[in-house]
Amino acid sequence: MGVSAYLDHAATTPMRREAVEAMLPFLDERFANPSGAHRMARDARRAVDDARDRFAALLGARPGEVVFTSGGTESDNLAVFGAGRAGADGPVPSAPADLTARLGTVVCSAVEHHAVLDPVLALGGRTVAVDRTGRLDLDDLDEVLWAEAARAAAGESAGVRLVSVMAANNEVGTLQPLGDVAEIVRRHAPGAVLHTDAVQAFCWADVAELCSVADLVSISAHKFGGPKGVGVLVVRDGVALSPRQLGGGQERGRRSGTQNVAGIVAAAVAAGLTVEARPAEVERVAKLRDRLLDGLVASVPGLVETGAVVGPGGPDRTGRVPGVAHVCIEGVESEALLFLLERAEVFASAASSCSSGALEASHVLAAMGVPSELRAGSLRLSLGWSTTDAEVDHALAALPPAVERLRAVGL
Ligand code: PLP
């Protein structure tokens, strides 16, 4: 096989071999339903409980605070709808305006993944601005929460119910200052629940530390070498949460539905390996990312690193996860570029594709104030545990001629 470069880890990662091996027995002879009463069922339940203990230890949580879900999207929806509307009648909220008056406003950053942004907007919530690097504008957060507190004091609203700020952004990789966010939330909205979507942070940041400042934390196994369709929502003891699914009462009634035993077992294995390797991987992948970005900036005219920060010693990328290299290229359309890159065996993304694979306008780049002519040529190259030097070399060789070719034909 010729050389290729899979640089789409932020979309999904290849499964780690150990995780595949761990899941196989539970697809085969250990297939029982963990909710049953017999010996085979108890075996499956024990496997789920062991995985829960493992996640709890890795996330700095108690086992009872770990809720297994079907992935990041479900964890985020459960957090926003479940905590944002806890106390509403039934799982389906009535008119948002009525509920906001009774239960309080939900707030999130303007650069959240749609799995948070859309539920927040569906509940009539508010968004907080970011700066040109994608970092939350803490003054704007202060202002929004202060204004809501003032309205609550005047009896005009029930205050802020939930604040959701992602740990790391999926398009550009910007890390958010969660400690500062928590402090502002505790100051102006002490009764609010703080949620963080740590789906893109798990490989790179100490998520146990994030868990210590948040009430709810979402992660997703397929972003760290586990299977698709498995996620966790950490729900701190004492946080009121209305379930979104009613049924058999699994996960202590917080998420009904037969657990994906094989997937959960594999996810715990992948999570353990990821946390163990994290310090070395952060260093290794940051070097690869720097080589990729510096090489592209030097070899492709009109290519800019998105939201770049230049320090005294050159580019300062400490505010980003090591796994994401996001650039915008003048005079080039992302879709055409991705097509040519694919032909050169480079698999990347524009970061804002929807489920059909078509490209949609990026609300993240718009919120960062990236000019629309640059946004049209956005490219996310994302790296992870399987990324090699050879893949970076391959991408560095493939990109300049692809851009040149598109410019020659005006695409
Ligand atoms: N949140 C973030 C930040 C993500 O990057 C993603 C996936 O891209 C999700 C949530 C959704 O996770 P899942 O694909 O597991 O539903």
Structural description of this entry:
- The protein is an alpha/beta fold and 411 residues long.
- The chain has two domains: 5-13 and 278-409, Aspartate Aminotransferase, domain 1; 17-273, Type I PLP-dependent aspartate aminotransferase-like (Major domain) (Aspartate Aminotransferase, domain 2), CATH 3.40.640.
- Helices cover 43% and strands 13% of the residues.
- The chain is built from 13 helices and 14 strands.
- The strands form four sheets. Strands 2-8-7-6-5-3-4 form a seven-stranded mixed sheet, sandwiched between helices. Strands 9-12-14 form a three-stranded antiparallel sheet. Strands 1-13 form a two-stranded parallel sheet.
- Helix 8 (207-213) links the parallel strand 6 and strand 7.
- Helix 2 (39-59) runs parallel beside helix 9 and helix 3 (72-84) packs parallel to helix 5.
- The longest helix has 39 residues, at 261-299.
- The chain starts with a strand and ends with a helix.
- 49% of the residues are buried.
- Bound molecules: pyridoxal-5'-phosphate (PLP).
- Pyridoxal-5'-phosphate (PLP) binds next to helix 3.
